[in-house]
């Protein structure tokens, strides 16, 4: 691909009846390749490019050439892609001569930066990313698609069969020839043609032909030289009463401005796989969070009012698409709320939801750490364009995960503001008798020492047992003591429970009862009370990972009203 090739292609198009506005000029640079600029202001929205039907490459042209119909049940563009590979790489193909000026403007296989064309060593820079998973998965799918079409036409040779057989046991990236001189029916030529379609084809629907499949595409010479920018307003169409395809822009351009197209709202992953480039700070970027769950669990979510869109039952996994606009999908909060439900909770409670967000935050933090360190690996790519693209991908994905993390924190703050739960800190501060008893027991002088010296859990257990012994004398939310009573009535204490609490218990009792009898010798301070207190804490307590503050939350169903009315409606009929 060179500027000269573009000029020859423009001449070819005009000589064959195309209209290309004289204000359009073409340029070439290393970062974005061939592109169009305006030589004079453009602001009228009029048709800028019109390409006659005979210069377009669409399904019927391929079918006429091969004298077969596009096979059903496969990629609707498979036959057309093979035809384009033949045009490009079979010098004996009778149609090649006519399309040669156009074919010469297309990128050569070795110049393409989409990861399908990277070496296995280069792909190491994407280790652990969805991008790598999709690259490998798509390559496998493409090999099957290619072999099905070359077998259907009976055009494969022994090398092709050999390649196909090898691909089942060898990494495809290790088998790929890195050459611009390919056999037209080889996998490499088909991979190139597939990329040509993903990066430059237009929907055939545009030509208002009767399309059997909305994914049918056609190649649109000259217009496919335009680069992409998000939000660019353009119009693609069909000239009145003809099969000629047209392009116009709705943007106002000054002389020297780039004439751009709009490939659609694409994430960097889509741009990299389909087009071999990525956009920094891409507003349409997404990150896919894949969660694997124990077998059978996915199926149980519907009964909890949680409907998941993108699930893979065979792998017991679910995908969530995160974006800057939706960094924290309500279904993700709901899922983690369910995963953190206690066996005594039948639906998501405010506690299980808050605890779920803490767990989710940990998962997201791991992702952020991964993308932070992975972006450093970019240095392993010698090709600077591929390095840049990897870095933008990693940075963009990290940005979305960071936004998810920030949203979790905002969500927690908002919920606490709404619920206004009582904090242990305030209860501790107002109960000076208890606070003083801990000064003697743990040598702490203030509440914060409980956190720094690691005595928080012990203090909480002592406090809960104290509440149960003091009854209504204490100025605390009644639900804590009610919960203690409920647990005490139903709990079955086993040997493991006793073993778990024994070291803690022995470290404090019976000394405490004799040292501070006004608290620790009143009521029941037996080990069972602490086992009950442990369950009370499980049911009512949540610690903010941000402030480390401990809150007591009255058990109540979480209202999904803010997460989406339809979830709320489904959940409203359920009780804790
Ligand atoms: C339809 S073609 C446009 C013409 C292309 N520049 C060429 O040299 O043939 C699409 C390709 O252009 C490049 N491209 C388009 N928009 C871009 C952008 N905003 N930044 C970087 N590369 C871009 C990518 O290589 C993409 O695969």
Q: How far apart lie the N and C ends?
A: 66 Å
Q: What share of the residues lie within helices?
A: 40-55%
According to DSSP, the number of beta strands is 15
CA gyration radius, whole angstroms: 33 Å
* Backbone shape: elongated
Average pLDDT number = 92
Strand content: 5-15%
- Which stretches are poorly predicted, pLDDT < 50 over at least 5 residues? 563-576
**What's the helix count?**
24
Assembly category: single chain
What is the makeup of the main sheet? Answer: 4 strands, antiparallel
- The computed structural class is alpha+beta
Spatial order of the strands in the main sheet? 1-4-8-7
Distinct ligand kinds: S-adenosylmethionine
Short synopsis of the structure:
With 576 residues, the chain is of the alpha+beta class. The protein contains 24 helices and 15 strands. Among the domains are: 286-419, no CATH class; 423-552, no CATH class.
Describe the structure.
The chain is an alpha+beta fold and 576 residues long. Among the domains are: 286-419, no CATH class; 423-552, no CATH class. 48% of the residues lie in helices and 10% in strands. It contains 24 helices and 15 strands. The strands form five sheets. A four-stranded antiparallel β-sheet has the order 1-4-8-7, with helices on one face. A three-stranded antiparallel β-sheet has the order 2-3-9, with helices on one face. A hairpin with a 6-residue loop joins strand 14 and strand 15 (550-552). Helix 3 crosses helix 9 (187-200), helix 6 runs antiparallel to helix 7 and helix 18 (456-470) crosses helix 23. The relative contact order is 0.08. The structure holds S-adenosylmethionine. Residues 1, 32-35, 107, 199-200, 224-229, 275-277 line the site of S-adenosylmethionine (SAM). This is LADA_0F00518g1_1.
């Amino acid at each position: 691909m060179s500027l000269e090739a573009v000029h020859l292609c423009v001449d070819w198009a005009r000589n064959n009846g195309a209209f290309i506005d004289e204000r359009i000029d073409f340029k070439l640079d290393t970062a974005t390749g061939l592109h169009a600029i305006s030589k004079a202001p453009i602001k009228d929205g009029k048709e800028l490019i019109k390409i006659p039907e005979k210069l377009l490459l669409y399904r019927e042209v391929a079918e006429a050439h091969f004298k077969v119909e596009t096979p059903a049940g496969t990629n609707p563009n498979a036959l057309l892609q093979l035809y384009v590979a033949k045009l490009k790489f079979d010098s004996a193909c009778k149609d090649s001569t006519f399309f040669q000026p156009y074919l010469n403007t297309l990128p050569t296989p070795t110049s393409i930066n989409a990861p399908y064309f990277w070496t296995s060593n280069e792909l190491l820079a994407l280790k652990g990313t969805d991008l790598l998973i999709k690259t490998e998965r798509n390559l496998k799918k493409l090999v099957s698609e290619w072999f099905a079409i070359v077998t259907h036409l009976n055009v494969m040779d022994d090398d092709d069969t050999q390649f196909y057989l090898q691909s089942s046991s060898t990494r495809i990236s290790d088998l790929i020839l890195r050459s611009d001189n390919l056999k037209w029916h080889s996998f490499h030529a088909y991979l190139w043609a597939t990329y040509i379609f993903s990066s430059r084809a237009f929907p055939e629907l545009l030509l208002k032909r009767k399309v059997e499949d909305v994914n049918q595409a056609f190649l649109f010479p000259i217009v496919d030289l335009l680069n992409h920018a998000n939000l660019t307003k353009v119009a693609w169409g069909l000239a009145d009463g003809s099969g000629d395809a047209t392009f116009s822009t709705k943007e106002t351009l000054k002389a020297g401005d780039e004439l751009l197209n709009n490939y659609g709202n694409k994430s960097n992953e889509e741009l990299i796989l389909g087009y071999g480039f990525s956009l920094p700070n891409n507003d349409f970027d997404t990150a896919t969070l894949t969660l694997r769950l124990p077998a059978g669990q996915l199926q149980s979510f519907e009964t909890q009012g949680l409907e998941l869109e993108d699930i893979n039952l065979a792998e017991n996994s679910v995908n969530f698409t995160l974006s800057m606009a939706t960094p924290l999908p309500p279904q993700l909060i709901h899922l983690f709320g369910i995963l953190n439900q206690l066996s005594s909770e039948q639906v998501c409670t405010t506690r299980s939801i808050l605890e779920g967000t803490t767990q989710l935050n940990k998962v997201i933090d791991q992702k952020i750490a991964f993308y932070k360190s992975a972006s450093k690996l970019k240095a392993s790519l010698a090709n600077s364009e591929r390095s840049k693209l990897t870095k933008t991908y990693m940075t963009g994905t990290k940005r979305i995960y960071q936004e998810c993390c920030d949203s979790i924190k905002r969500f927690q703050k908002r919920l606490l503001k709404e619920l206004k739960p009582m904090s242990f800190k305030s209860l501790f501060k107002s109960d000076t008798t208890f606070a003083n008893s801990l000064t003697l027991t743990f040598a702490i002088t203030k509440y914060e020492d409980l956190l720094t010296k690691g005595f928080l859990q012990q203090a909480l257990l002592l406090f809960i047992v104290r509440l149960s012994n003091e009854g209504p004398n204490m100025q605390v939310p009644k639900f804590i003591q009610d919960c203690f009573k409920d647990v005490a009535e139903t709990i079955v204490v086993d040997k493991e429970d006793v073993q778990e609490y024994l070291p803690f218990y022995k470290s404090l009792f019976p000394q405490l009862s004799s040292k501070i009898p006004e608290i620790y010798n009143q009521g029941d301070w037996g080990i069972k009370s602490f086992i009950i207190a442990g369950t009370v804490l499980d049911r009512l307590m949540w610690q903010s990972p941000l402030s480390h503050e401990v809150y007591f939350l009255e058990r109540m169903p979480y209202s999904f009203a803010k997460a989406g009315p339809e979830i709320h409606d489904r959940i409203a009929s359920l009780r804790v």
